[in-house]
Design a protein that fits this description.
It is built from 4 helices and no strands. It is an all-alpha fold and 60 residues long.
Length: 60
């Protein structure tokens, strides 16, 4: 068993980001400004919310 399971955590966050973008962002950065930006983007259009969430998760 690997001691570092961040890849597995990233996969889970990516799946959640596709289904519910703000949840994936909240898991990555908490309830920071990025979370609220993602909520607004998701409300304006589902795809921009997904793109932003994936970018936040892969950027770290």
């Amino acid at each position: 068993m690997a001691t570092n399971d961040s890849a597995g955590g990233d996969i889970l966050r990516l799946i959640l980001s596709i289904l519910l973008p703000p949840v994936g962002v909240a898991m990555q950065v908490g309830f920071s400004a990025q979370f609220w930006i993602n909520v607004i983007l998701t409300l304006l259009g589902y795809v921009p919310g997904i793109i932003h969430a994936v970018w936040i998760i892969l950027r770290r």
